[in-house]
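ok so i was messing around last nite and threw this chain in just to see what happens. nothing serious, just curious
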Amino acid sequence: MRVLVIANDLLTRVGLAALLTQQVDVIGQIPAGENLADDLEVYQPDVVVYDAGYDPHLDCLETLSDLPLVVLLPDGEVVSAVIAALNGGVYGLLQRESTTDWIIQALETVAEGLLVFDPILIEPLTARIDTVIEPLLEQLTSRESEVLQYLAEGLANKAIAQTLGISPNTVKFHINAIFSKLTVQSRTEAVVRATQLGLIIL
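result:
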């Protein structure tokens, strides 16, 4: 597993790389700058870990969206940053204070095409969902229902695309439609809402 460490703060990325390199193959450590796309072409990582720092800037997620990605956010991070990360297509979302073993386990899991989210970061999202369950104004299509079920099983976009024999962009299109019909903003909210409505089986 070839791991690329990304962090804008030099000391942060050097420290994180030093911790991880004891157990995984850290192939490089770079900032999330203007040359990010070129750097990815050079390193060709299997999985990426991005420490977003204490003042998270997540503009780089679009460039990283096609890679298994674990983002580290500060403890107690605001809901908006968590939603931005989830909508950015991250495979894993952990606290910056997570142990090295936990980060490595998350990297190994996302490398298999599965999703890993720290409950502490996700809990505020589920708490925001209304307890009153209102019916859908527009029903999901059969394909959207399939995609939703795979979301509930923890599959990332690429894995869903491979399973259904469609492109990752088509998967993103279906997920956006699902979010719109369920009136949610993230995968976690979608799964919770769909479970309340009896649309999926966990």
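not much to say yet. Residues 168-182 form the longest helix (15 residues).
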